[in-house]
Amino acid sequence: MPKDLRKDEIYMKRCLQLALQGLGNVAPNPMVGCVIVNNDIIIGEGYHIKYGEPHAEVNAIKSVKDKSLLKTSALYVNLEPCSHFGKTPPCADLIIKYEIPMVIIGSKDCNEKVAGKGIEKLINAGCMVETGLLENESRYLNRRFFTFYEKKRPYIILKWAETQDGFIDIIREDSATKKPNWITSEKTRVLVHKWRTEEDAIMVGTNTALLDNPALTARDWKGKNPVRVVLDRDLSLPVTFKIFDSQACTIVFNTIKTDVCNNVKFLKINFNEQLIENILEVLFKENIQSLIVEGGAQLLNSFIKSNLWDEAIVLKGSQYYLKGIIAPKIMKDAVRTTKLQHDTILFYVNT
Fold it and tell me: How far apart are CA 56 and CA 207, in angstroms?
């Protein structure tokens, strides 16, 4: 470990700050930030801006005006530099090319394409390498990435809105209009759309799709739409529903067919045994790293019962229903609570 741990942590925290700017834009790649320091002065920094574009180390090295300084500098990066050719050349090779003598890494890469190979390449080239600086923080930042490769499933975020008396919805009559029954404020709904841009996919059950006819897009926030995932066992959802429009890609889990029609992919799976496990196995193969599960209550409870969730966000509105569909229950204490207008937002972590 470098001698001045306090300064080193400051530089690594800057890497994490930079990396976070790639949230929602770099998946399936991890979020990475890089800082280059010479004589206790930051002379270059960069982050991975968008999937398919240059990595953080490339952008940081490019930002250094006097490249001759690189031979006496230290490079800080929150994730092990890549060692393979993908959309871009290996970052480890670029570090070696410029003869950067020291590399300080937050966490090792768990992707088998890297997994220590970047570190090995740097050491073999004569570079001093230190690992594990703010490792927990580095892993948390890329928790979606690490969950995907280590647990072979998407990172799962459960989300629902409930009333003050614990109901997720009213009892819908057959004649009820197919539209969402809003519990929270408009500002909270905008925040939800922001969250959607940060994740790969969003999922609802059949009843929620039938009753709400949701678009499941991020239309109230600038950013990419998540892949829409819906359960439709018997393919009973009308093809005119918003979830099948051209605004985003859609995956339909069913028991009838596997097919692709325009932007809709039908995937046949077994609904009778280990449904949640089957869904996650397929989403892993589809390269979906993170999934928001928005409802309904039955689907949310299935994830909770299976203990297959990583975070939960409960949006508590100010109104009362007195009766209706009972909201799911998380048998844990919230790790964080915040207020937005009249709504209370509770955050849970499954540890």
Answer: 43
